[in-house]
Amino acid sequence: MNDAPAITTVPVKLGDRSYDILIGAGLIDRAGAAIASRAGSVRVAIVSDETVAALHLDRLTRSLSGAGIDSTPILVTAGEKSKGFATLEAVTNAILAARLERGDVVIAFGGGVIGDLAGFAAGIARRGMRFIQMPTSLLAQVDSSVGGKTGINTAHGKNLVGVFYQPQLVLADTDVLDTLTPREFRAGYAEVAKYGLIDRSDFFAWLEKNWRGIFDGGPERTEAIAVSCQSKADVVARDEKETGDRALLNLGHTFGHALETATNYDSARLVHGEGVSIGIVLAHQFSTKMNLASQDDAGRVEAHFRQVGLPVSIGDIPGELPSAEKLMDYIAQDKKVARGALTFILTRGIGQAFIAKDVPPSAVLSFLQEKHPT
Amino acid sequence: MNDAPAITTVPVKLGDRSYDILIGAGLIDRAGAAIASRAGSVRVAIVSDETVAALHLDRLTRSLSGAGIDSTPILVTAGEKSKGFATLEAVTNAILAARLERGDVVIAFGGGVIGDLAGFAAGIARRGMRFIQMPTSLLAQVDSSVGGKTGINTAHGKNLVGVFYQPQLVLADTDVLDTLTPREFRAGYAEVAKYGLIDRSDFFAWLEKNWRGIFDGGPERTEAIAVSCQSKADVVARDEKETGDRALLNLGHTFGHALETATNYDSARLVHGEGVSIGIVLAHQFSTKMNLASQDDAGRVEAHFRQVGLPVSIGDIPGELPSAEKLMDYIAQDKKVARGALTFILTRGIGQAFIAKDVPPSAVLSFLQEKHPT
């Protein structure tokens, strides 16, 4: 291991539930050793999807068995449709069928869907198993694998059912990102840029200059992932259960979720990160309309997202969409509603996002009608 | 309220998740005031079953609306079969359909099944709503409503899927116990006696003398419920997530769960408390066989349970049962298995239960073959 590539460690500080995020090249091959040194003699269930498994599962299984760890794969169909009660039940039953005990480990090996689904199953099987995240998409590495939110979707909306359940370790292998399609990579990039837009204007400026290195797999990639994880870890440490500041991480997500609902989670039309990209641009434009942010800042965000190839407007989504009024209904049903007043993450400019708790629904509707005339 | 009957309060001390158990007559009629004074202006979903709802729901709804609290009833079929993924999904969706927000309240209004199911749904809907237990069976009042264990059954066994989720308040109305069948009341009594057998031999001796008052609704009833809740609260405060002492509460439950599985949770043949009754007697007899406890103590437990009308042997269960070998399989699949060695709650005598982590499966099997020859 002397010439093994360097690993960046980001600690997540949550008292007796603290854990490390390890970021670097070749981490799949080192997973067995990393898990054995932390968890000792355990058995493992690897929850993954068919796409990720075809590319990387053999390598992970070999790494685990090399460290004396037996593993059982539990595979689900790739895509957002697996984030529902039916698949949750199947995965949970598969963990029980493998006769794993409370001290054994569930690994989420995949993108955001797998992390949310496997984390939820790990949180409820035997009322909580050990849980390790091995995110394989950029989005999962910088966002969903960190912070302990797990969940599934229902007819009532996205992520409305789940538990807060922290992993004991996150292993982010930066090599696997080379197997993503450009579209998937870009979608994850929207969440990277989000951290700059929330409260790190210098990071956003750095991204404007260095984004090509991130996309091309240069050293900027690991740096961008580490800054993103650190940003998220800081927020989660302050407010694990989202009673306050953590809501800032939802910048762009209220609009984004509504658009995902409107496209029925059809990934051919819109994936989560693309919804967030459009949502972030809309949040900046709406902030401008509310006289909170300058037109220049909103334009800068839109220009950067467009430059990297992300969709930036509702019109960029292929196919028919429901009316502005219907989109408004989806927003009202979103979980960030409190007592009839809408809570939105708005901004005073690049890196100056804030939680607005009293946004008039009529203002949102009129903004949507303007952006999405029918 | 000047001549309202006295209420006994038992505090459960769990740091920032501490809560009170209120025990007394007429608490349903006082629920609205009790909830409004603690939770303020909230909306409520009442999860209940058709049997309990027919008897008591109107009174609860009136009490809530008298305090200005709107409520939505969510009714499920009575019985253990409702403790599964399908009903969990239905209840969770009904909470979302009622558009309850995170700060709103889910009330579990029923016996142990309702408490486990509604608590699980409250723990996962919006990643955790406010939760209040209003147990209507003796078993739920003295056991399942206290301590935060929630869960459902799967084909792999009982309560293998769930979350630890503490209520914010428990309201135990002792009047409602008069509407239980004698059989249901007796089943709950097995859990009351269990506390004496774990570590309060004086309480067990008091029960041997005073059980008739408990069954007849005398002042002994409230006292027995309060002692039971206090016993459970003490254990839970020491070990909320069952990494140690809390397992003592499973006295009789390993055998009991196996018998419930063997009867396919058919309440016509065996209800939970009856399984626990037989299980407790078996645990004492097995402890005698292992030369840990005296024959006299085991006989005293069996005699008392028989005296109150509880089943005390496998042969007391009506209908055909699987073989001893099959019962052993169910035990091995139970969650209290660690690394191949069986963990059992055994005893050195009345009030001297302990956690035995190294019970040889062969000894259990031979004991079962003796008690249940085929």
Automatic annotation (TrEMBL), chains A, B:
Q: Please list the GO terms describing molecular function.
A: 3-dehydroquinate synthase activity; metal ion binding; nucleotide binding
Q: Tell me the keywords, alphabetical order.
A: Amino-acid biosynthesis, Aromatic amino acid biosynthesis, Cobalt, Cytoplasm, Lyase, Metal-binding, NAD, Nucleotide-binding, Zinc
Localization in the cell: Cytoplasm
Q: How is the cofactor bound?
A: Binds 1 divalent metal cation per subunit. Can use either Co(2+) or Zn(2+).
What cofactor does this chain's UniProt record say it requires? NAD(+); Co(2+); Zn(2+)
Mention any one GO cellular component term assigned to this protein in its UniProt record.
cytoplasm
| Protein name (database record) | 3-dehydroquinate synthase
| Name of the coding gene | aroB
Organism for this UniProt entry: Phyllobacterium endophyticum
Stated family: Belongs to the sugar phosphate cyclases superfamily. Dehydroquinate synthase family.
Task: Quickly give the catalysed reaction.
Answer: 7-phospho-2-dehydro-3-deoxy-D-arabino-heptonate = 3-dehydroquinate + phosphate
